[in-house]
Amino acid sequence: MNVSQYISHKIDGADSGSFTSSVTKIAIISIAMGLAVMIVSFAILEGFRNEIQNKIFSFGAHLQITKYDTNNSLEVAPINGQQLTQELRTFPQVKTVQPFAIKTAIIKTRDEVLGVVLKGIDEPQAGSSPMRQNLVAGKFLTFPDTAASNDVLLSRKVADKLRLKVGDEALFYFIQNPPRIRRFKVSGIYQTGLDEFDEVYVIGDIRQIRDLRAWPDSLVGGMEVVLRDFQQLNPVADNMYEQLPYDLKLDKITEQYQQLFDWLKLLNRNVVIFLVLIIVVATFNMIATIFIMILERTNMIGVLKAIGATDNQIRSMFFFRGLSLTVRGMLWGNVIGLGFCAVQYFFHVIPLDPENYYMDRVPIHWDLLIIVVLNVATFLASLLAVLVPTYLISRIRPVTAIKFD
Asked: What are the residue boundaries of the MacB-like periplasmic core domain, all occurrences included (predicted)?
């Protein structure tokens, strides 16, 4: 331990009961609360982002390929699913390829009538379908080997409007020539919290739609493509679009549900501004704390200079003092921030209204890299705040400082 560290350690205990002691406690609390709020803010922000993105991806995947249609109709012309699947799997960035088909319908019960969109999926997709995470009642679709399944999944909103529950049956009317009627059984009820899906979609067996539209097994309404890395969406989509046949349309999930992704970007921007303000306040408090330390120790600084101490040695003394405060503040900040996140993650103590926030509780996402970056940023900002006021020491004259009261 050098002289500067030794003196810094000694005055740490000597400050007890003085005005500096109160100020240093405020500095520690400022750093601790600032870091804790940043950790919690990023954990919640990433939690919201992941939860909402996963709900969107459970319906639309990253890319959607359909037949080009100038009428912008939901029921587009079919495409050869087997051939397109082989072509898409040649792209190294593609993780999975999932066929689907869509058919508009009218559900009629004894008392209610409601228009919906029946989205058909196949059994391989269903086996690992992310839709399973949205189930709130019942079970997922079953796929018999011999015939199309009569099971369907309704959203909570659709089920409530039609007064249906798991196990009930309902008539689906399909407007075509000639009109067709199918009786389906509600095997499960899902809830995403996103009105874009919950108010519209019913999930069923793709073979039912093939039968209604008289398609062979090779035809599908479109293909949903899941990428290995969502961050590579734009370059992969551009490359894929150049290699697809001219009569196929490629839609990115960020364009299909642009309002949701724009909302996520807005959240991110607001949190960044908020965090910058927190760091500025914590930095200002640290600067003020060191200034007060220097003013209260002006006599000691004069004495140290008089006996030969250099400005750098005295500056290092206050630097180590500020470093000690920073480390203690960061330690408490991590305990508070990570502790709060752990309590919310495991016990869900803070609920949310799904109607407004798309989920029933405050989500938490653990990201070690972000936690490390926040700690490093807080540490560097605090050290910079410590260094700035220490340059005042070089302007203190020993004779004047010794007489200072």
From this structure: 26-238
List of residues 6+ apart from 147 with CB closer than 8 A: 207
Contact in structure between 248 and 65 (CB atoms under 8 Å): yes
pLDDT, residue 251, reads: 92
3-state secondary structure at position 216:
coil
List all residues 6 or more positions away from 31 whose beta carbon is below 8 Å from its beta carbon.
282, 285, 286, 325, 326, 329, 330, 333, 378, 382
Q: How high is the pLDDT of residue 238? A: 93
pLDDT given for residue 28 in this prediction = 85
What's the predicted TM-score (pTM) here?
Answer: 0.79
- Tell me if 109 sits within 8 A of 163, measured CB to CB: yes
Give the pLDDT score at 358: 77
Q: How far is CA 379 from CA 152, 215, 280, 328, 333, in A?
A: 55, 64, 13, 11, 12
Q: Kindly list the averaged pLDDT for each block of 10 residues, start to end, along the chain of length 405.
A: 61 56 80 89 88 84 87 78 88 91 92 92 68 88 87 94 93 90 94 87 94 91 91 92 89 89 80 79 77 73 72 76 86 95 93 80 91 89 78 66 57
Interatomic CA distance for residues 45 and 59, integer angstroms: 22
- Compute, in degrees rounded to 10, the torsion defined by CA atoms 140, 143, 149, 150: -30
- Sorted by where each begins, the domain ranges of the chain are 3-56+261-403, 69-245
Apex CA 205: angle with CA 210 and CA 151, to 5°?
135
Predicted pLDDT of residue 39:
92
**C-beta neighbour count of 314 within 10 angstroms:** 23
**Which CA distances in Å does 182 have to 101, 213, 349?**
17, 13, 44
DSSP helix/strand/coil, 142: coil
Q: Copy the structure tokens of residue 88.
A: 């898409």
Angle between helices 19-60 and 311-347 (to 10 degrees): 40
Q: Is the dihedral of CA 334, 336, 337, 338 positive or negative?
A: positive
pLDDT on residue 207: 93
